[in-house]
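Reference record:
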Amino acid sequence: MNLTLLPALNASLNTASALLLILGYLFIRQRAVTAHTICMLSACGTSTLFLISYLVYHFFHGVTPFPRHDWVRLVYFLILISHTILAVVIVPLVMVVLFFALRGKFDKHRAVARVTLPLWLYVSVTGVVVYWMLYHL
């Protein structure tokens, strides 16, 4: 199995997710509920595809060590640690936000989404940053 394209695919999926989250936010601010719903469900889809691809890659490939041993290494690990912790936290938050939206409990949906959106956006963007630091520095 050729795994060499999966890290770039994962970064692309994270980028797509971040863009969809931003668009979804902009749409709901304009009260374009259908467009918001499509963007947010698409962000869930791209994030799910990312997670599947990420797990497949690391199951077969294992860990990719960070190649640098200077000050950039510390920056990389600080970003990676915060990204990893929040990536774990974001999964149940997204599920709760979706649950409230699907149940029509929009006050609760909005309250949890106000916390979830910036965290999810941070995870998506830092996923791309981690990719670039690991494969392109």
The chain has one domain: 6-136. The helical segments are 6-29, 33-61, 71-102, 106-136.
